[in-house]
Automatic annotation (TrEMBL):
InterPro entries: TM_pro_TauE-like. This is Probable membrane transporter protein. It is found in: Cell membrane; Membrane. Signal peptide: none annotated. Its main location: membrane.
Length: 279
């Protein structure tokens, strides 16, 4: 691997780790575009590169989410039962989503990725602030176990389908439909991503075994070299993101969440290329 590619992956890992800790997302929406650039520039066919990027990003999201969830748990920002139920249902859904991705064309996958990220960003931007008075997220509206299980399955499926940990969808759902404040939504999402990402990783490994044309250091649709570079940078910076999350007002968290996701979603869909805009 060329030095410039390794450097780009490390920078992506730093940004993904910080986003994971601060925003309660796996950071896949940051890592996937960088991985696609590295893989396609290295001569990997675009559809295969997309599948590898999705699977590898989910593998990195797993330890990063564990690190972030521990930090949020120490601050009392994780609702354990909600995280467990969402995560278990999400694990099953993510495995199924990964199976679909193994058969779908790359262009369609990248468009789906962009649409999911932008839709989640817009939902977060328009959601009412349930944590009035500073956004500390102390109030919780009780929901039945079935609600979390029913939500976890489709959220997990989309997670596996487009190679994201699920936080980009879980945070707005938890902070609006399920009645958690923004900080508890972020913390609970980080914990649920642990299980959701596991299901996706298993699926990408299983469905990529024996596929010809994979780059060196691959295990199915996971590239172990990229995992090492991304995770090595993202894991320590996740804790920094956790500290930042508890020092920033909820409305500012929403703005950061929304702007970053909209940009990356448009980029993955090729919108800037179509409009001939350089951003």
């Amino acid at each position: 691997m060329e030095l410039i590619f390794a450097f780009g992956l490390v920078l992506a890992g730093v940004a993904a780790g910080f986003a994971s800790g601060m925003l309660g997302v796996g950071g896949c929406f940051i890592m996937v575009p960088v991985q696609l650039w590295v893989l396609t520039a290295s001569g990997i066919e675009p559809t295969m590169a997309t599948r590898i990027a999705f699977g590898t990003a989910l593998a990195v999201a797993l330890p990063t989410a564990i690190n972030a969830a521990l930090g949020h748990h120490r601050r009392g920002a994780v609702v354990p039962r909600a995280a467990l139920l969402l995560g278990l249902a999400g694990l099953v859904g993510a495995f199924l989503g990964g199976a679909v991705t193994a058969k779908a064309p790359g262009d369609l996958l990248r468009i789906a990725f962009g649409l999911v990220v932008i839709a989640a960003a817009l939902r977060m931007a328009t959601a009412p602030d349930l944590t009035a008075g500073g956004g500390e997220g102390d109030g919780t509206i009780p929901r039945s176990d079935g609600c979390y299980l029913l939500l976890g399955l489709p959220l997990g499926f989309i997670s596996g389908l487009v190679g994201i940990g699920g936080g980009v969808m879980m945070v707005p759902v938890l902070s609006t439909a399920m009645g958690l404040g923004i900080h508890r939504a972020v913390g609970t999402s980080s914990a649920a991503i642990i299980l959701t990402s596991s299901g996706g990783v298993l699926s990408y490994v299983y469905h990529g075994l024996g596929v010809p044309g994979l780059p060196p250091f691959s295990l199915g649709y996971l590239n172990l070299l990229q995992v090492a570079l991304l995770a090595g940078a993202s894991i320590p910076t996740a804790r920094i993101g956790v500290r930042a999350a508890h020092r920033i007002r909820a409305d500012r968290l929403r703005k950061v969440f929304t702007l970053l996701m909209v940009y990356i979603g448009l980029e993955m869909m090729g919108a800037f290329e179509v409009l001939r805009v350089t951003v």
